Structures are given as C-alpha cells and as structure tokens.
Amino acid sequence: MIAPSDRTPLPREFFDRPVLEVAPDLLGRLLVRTTPDGPIVLRLTEVEAYDGPNDPGSHAYRGRTARNGVMFGPPGHVYVYFTYGMWHCMNLVCGPEGQASGVLLRAGEIVEGAELARARRLSARNDKELAKGPARLAMALDVDRTLDGTDACAAGDTPIRVLTGTPTPPDQVRNGPRVGVAGAGGCGKAHPWRFWVADDPTVSPYRPHVPRRRRS
Fold it and tell me: Which EC class is the enzyme in (predicted)?
C-alpha cells in the first residue's frame, strides 16, 4: 500500500533545478500513468541525466528541432522520443525554460496496476522485468509520442503525474556511465550520469556503447 503522504504531487519547482540534482532525487518517486483502463503506478529505480547544450549525448546538444522542442520548454513536462524505428522512451524536462536538460526514465517497479502492465509486456518473465529498461518502461505504461509535451505538474487530471513517494536515501544511490552512450566528446565514462537504487532487482543491466560497423 502507498501511504497518503507519498501521493503528494511534486511541484514544478522540483524540476526547475540543475539536471544533476533532479536525476538522483527522482529515485523512489512515484510515476502515475492514468490510462482509459485505470492507473499504473511505478516507483522509479533508475534514471539518466542529459544536460542539453553541455552534453554531446543529449538530443538537444545541437539545438532545437521539431523532435526535441519540448526539452526547451518549461520544466516538469514529458519528452517522449521514438528510437530505432521500434521503441519509445520517456524523459522529464528539468532546469529553467530554454536550457533543454532532461532525465531519461530507465527503470522502475510497478507498484499498482501490474495487471495492466502485464497485458502490454507479454514477454516479461516476471513482474521485475515489466519496466526494466527505458523502452520496456514506456511500453508497460502505454507511453508513446502522443504524450510528448504532457505537463506532469498540471492541476487536475493529467495522463502523467509524479508523486513524492519515498526518496531513496543518498547512501543507497549509485551512479556510473550511461548505457550505450559513446565516449567521444566526453559523454561516456567521463560523465557518470546514470543513477540507480543499489541492489534493486528492477534496475537494467549496464551495456557500454558499441560502435556500429558499416556493411562492406
């Protein structure tokens, strides 16, 4: 059961901070996805920070485009992108408007609405795998590009909201290189901006970047 005190929505001011402050502070928070079939609640256990123009690994590094426009907007909004022609991934925009930083939501534990998540993640071998990885998380929560730009801090009904939950104690937070991010430009091991809850079984495995080889 989730305590009533854990269900307080996070204010916009929470997200209006440097991304490297927001990212670890999201661990243990509750993400509520309201669907036509009912709500799904996820406890965040793994995230990655992306620092816009200061970060070659960020979608916003080279400036504003039609795809990444939400990242340049007010904090507390949802940025959803489509990758590899197959998967959606979900981010929360941080920092002052115009700075384009965000946190990729990499993994979490479904604490309510697991039956709805299971229906979307039929290949999951158990509930720990329902949202183990950013694409799996988006699939389990029924997130796609139609939710790009959603205000997670809006008053009233909103399809996505972030609640206070139980913040992870600092001594239980780990950090390291981001998954699959190249080292070129100093955005690989030089930027250990992936944060996760220590020893949590829902955290995804680390995979280093592997350069693509051109076909001969």
Answer: hydrolase
